[in-house]
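It is time I had a proper look at our fold encoding. Can you supply me with one protein entry, sequence and fold together? It will help me judge whether the discrete encoding reads sensibly. Leave the record below and I will have a look:
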Amino acid sequence: MAQEQVAKLKKKQWYPIIAPKQFDNVVLGETLVYEPQQMLGKTLSHSLMNLTNDPKRQNINIHFKVVEIEGDKAKTSIVGYEIVHSSVKRFVRRASEKMDLSFNCDTLDNVFLRVKPLAIARADVKGSIAAKMRNNIISYLTRTIKKMNYGDFMADLISHKIQSEMRGFLSKIYPVKVCEIRYAGIEARDKPQEIKAEVAQAQ
């Protein structure tokens, strides 16, 4: 009974949530909890524009998760990258072929990801060429990501290196005007047959 009374008397406090070293450990925000350990597992999103002071990156959100408590600070890791929906809609124009895909793959250090690339051709393309491009997008990204640790993959994604390299690869098949990864993030592992079915559907 005495312990319950002490718990009730204890007040919540504000604790800072810190970005990873990649973003210079800036403060992402604060959260109000009784104990710092209660922050473990908390997720939050931040505009890449605010993290890099680059207005051109305002259409991208980075998702974070609290993975460690150090003193009274919550340390985070990056768990996702996402282009905001309104920007994705602006990419699409008439007289063009949109390839909007979704599939799962592993990094070199066995982090399981959901990846959603988006490519838009400069004009309508025939079914066979569009199918070839879809297949090549999935195979190219799967091979590329499998050779990279998760941290390196996220760093190249945020710097737009992977997207630029993918665009160069696809342009050898057919000219593209948009080549993006609209989402990439850590995901719980699904059953193998569910993954295969989704990849087949995306193709």
